[in-house]
Hints:
Blueprint: E1 7-10, E2 13-15, H1 18-28, E3 33-35, H2 45-58, H3 65-77, H4 88-99
Helix pairs in contact: 2-3
Amino acid sequence: MNNEPVAWMVDGVLFTSLGAALNISFDIEQPCIPLYTHPAKTLTDEEIGQIYKDVKADSLFEQTFPYRFAHAIQIALGVKEPLQLNSGLGGIALRKAQEK
């Protein structure tokens, strides 16, 4: 796998040319940050279907199913901080508002 930067960021602006990024970085005295890609994990239709069946069988209340399903997909994809089952959308909105 090629581990070269695919772009660079200087003061919130994206550059695809290292030379241009370094020129701006030097001019405004801000760091030039390299940006890399990584292979995305994917799930097959069969894996998603199995997660759906497992979560559906375990959901006692229909209204909790979407959150449980999203949480299970996040875990399967290796998300480090998946949606918390008891947070609901209100919990997400509250956390976002508190972060501002």
